[in-house]
Design brief:
Oligomer: single chain
Order of helices and strands: EHHEHEHHEHEHEHHEEHHHEEHEEEH
Low-confidence stretches: 368-378
Distance between the termini: 18 Å
CATH architecture of the largest domain: 3-Layer(aba) Sandwich
Strand content: 15-25%
Number of helices: 14
Strand order of the largest sheet: 2-8-7-6-5-3-4
Number of strands: 13
Mean pLDDT: 95
Radius of gyration: 22 Å
Shape: globular
CATH topology of the largest domain: Aspartate Aminotransferase, domain 2
Largest sheet: 7 strands, mixed
Structural class: alpha/beta
Bound molecules: pyridoxal-5'-phosphate
């Protein structure tokens, strides 16, 4: 059977041939003793690229964010974060369960930012014994729930300035940090510079099989390393995984940062094709607040979020039957993510499959017995 066109996430990527070779040949040690040369090289490379003192290889983006929260926050403190952020919505409340911290959530704007005046107003009064003590601000770049919007270095600096005025650090959940770098044409050191710590994922658009890296000061990374150990995240011959990360971050033709531009172009191509289809609509919410047609101009990285004027589950099933996978997204929307392994011809096949799945699926609100009944397949 032909492999489906899998647009559920950029996490479904398989390693490149160069990564597989590097993994097979990786020089290994025991990373808990600190002597796995490949892990050490990856951590140094990541720190250098983002202009930080040190790095830490972790198993996932979730673990990266969690060790950062553990390193920054004391029990009973509070972080300021967007309501629609991964740390708040999608990390099983690790901040509460493990760190013992609360989160003060703010609404995001359609450009993925939290308003600066609202961030300023969200700080607690440390002289009031009733209130938790604000200990961290976190932002997400790219911001997934606004449709993968990249946040600029200027915005990051503005948030860091507010945090610093309250003597509080800034953490960036940069699961898709490199998508932001590529979309903005930014220098990664400028984008990471204002932050005290950044997590970025290797196993999303960069196409590595496993892992993320956290970067920050040497002192912060020491605390994050302890936190990783507490979580059982100290891995031994982890160089076999880190080797793929080194390929991803390399300058040569095997590096996978530059090719993220292809994912962004493919996402744009997909959005333009979908926008032309009757039955594809604006996803609403903060992704595209204005109702009406899907606006391809809102697609700037690898996410395409849209809504269908159909029963969503039935539409997704009809799409799957045609060999294309997408996922439900908040507020009744659907998400497709482009990534390594998805080529322009796959995008064109996806647009054709969406057209056919729309024709196969009942229009929401249509009386039964109309021409919109699912077509019988031979
Ligand atoms: C914005 C964001 N942060 C963090 C993560 C967590 O990454 P992982 O799935 O590697 O734990 C994700 C995963 O999709 C994400 O989208």
């Amino acid at each position: 059977m032909q492999r489906p066109i899998d647009l559920r996430s950029d996490t479904v990527t398989h390693p490149t041939p160069a990564m597989r070779r590097a993994m097979a040949e990786a020089e290994l040690g025991d990373d808990v003793f600190g002597d796995d040369p490949t892990v050490n090289a990856l951590e140094e490379r990541a720190a250098a690229l983002l202009g930080k003192e040190a790095g830490l290889f972790v198993s996932s983006g979730t673990q990266g964010n969690l060790v950062a929260l553990m390193a920054h926050l004391a029990r009973g403190q509070e972080a300021i974060a967007a309501f629609e952020s991964h740390t708040v919505m999608d990390e099983a409340a690790g901040h509460a369960v493990v760190v013992g911290a609360s989160v003060r959530t703010l609404q995001s704007s359609p450009d993925g930012t939290m308003r600066l005046d609202e961030i300023e107003a969200a700080f607690r009064d440390p002289s009031d014994p009733h209130e938790p003590i604000t200990g961290l601000v976190t932002i997400e770049n790219t911001h997934a729930h606004s449709g993968g919007r990249p946040l600029t270095a200027a915005y990051t600096r503005a948030v860091a300035d507010i945090a610093r005025a309250h003597a509080v650090p800034l953490h960036v959940d940069g699961a898709r940090f490199w998508n932001a770098v590529v979309a903005l044409g930014a220098d990664p050191r400028d984008l990471a510079g204002p932050a005290d710590s950044v997590t970025f994922c290797l196993s999303k658009g960069l196409a590595c099989p496993v892992g993320s890296v956290v970067v920050g000061t040497r002192d912060f990374i020491w605390r994050a390393r302890r936190a990783r150990k507490l979580l059982g995240g100290g891995m031994r011959q982890a160089g076999i995984l880190a080797a793929a990360g080194l390929v991803a971050l390399s300058d040569g033709p095997d590096g996978t940062i530059g090719r993220l531009a292809d994912d962004h172009a493919n996402a744009r191509r997909l959005a333009e094709g979908l926008a032309d289809l009757d039955g594809v609509e604006s996803p609403g919410g903060i992704v595209q607040p204005a109702p009406g047609r899907l606006d391809p101009d809102r697609i700037t990285t690898d996410f395409v979020v849209f809504r269908v004027a159909r029963d969503r589950a039935a539409f997704l099933a009809a799409l799957e039957a045609r060999g294309v996978l997408m996922v439900p997204y908040p507020h009744g929307a659907i998400r497709a993510v482009t990534h390594y392994g998805v080529e322009p011809h796959d995008v064109d096949a996806t647009i054709a499959a969406v057209r056919a799945a729309l024709a196969d699926t009942v229009v929401v609100g249509a009386p039964t017995g109309t021409a919109h009944r699912p077509a019988r397949r031979a």
